[in-house]
Design goal:
The chain has 74 residues and is α+β, with helices and mostly antiparallel strands. It is globular and about 40 Å long. Strands 3-2-1-4 form a 4-stranded antiparallel beta sheet. The protein is built from 2 helices and 4 strands; from the N terminus they run E-E-H-E-H-E. It has helices spanning 33-41, 54-59; strands at residues 2-13, 20-26, 46-51, 65-70. Helix content is 20%, strand content 42%. The protein has one domain (2-70).
Length: 74
């Protein structure tokens, strides 16, 4: 497994649509010791995806940070 840390950069809503577009960027700041460690190994990267589950979308608010785990799918 590989773990990355990303921050929500933007949440885009669309008129008349339930789905929102979430854009996240890899942590690249030095504000905390943990962020320095993540920025050292993942200095840049962008994730963009759509969420059409309102309770899930409410968790993904701008500026909130998340760990993202990459586990091989069998």
């Amino acid at each position: 497994m590989v773990r990355a840390k990303f921050k929500v950069e933007s949440v885009t809503t669309f008129p008349g649509q339930v789905a929102v577009k979430i854009t996240m960027r890899a942590i690249c700041d030095n504000s905390t010791e943990e962020n320095r460690r993540f920025a050292k190994y993942t200095p840049s990267g962008t994730l963009e995806f759509y969420v059409d589950n309102p309770p899930a979308a409410e968790e993904l608010t701008k500026s909130k940070e998340f760990y993202i785990d990459f586990t091989p799918a069998e």
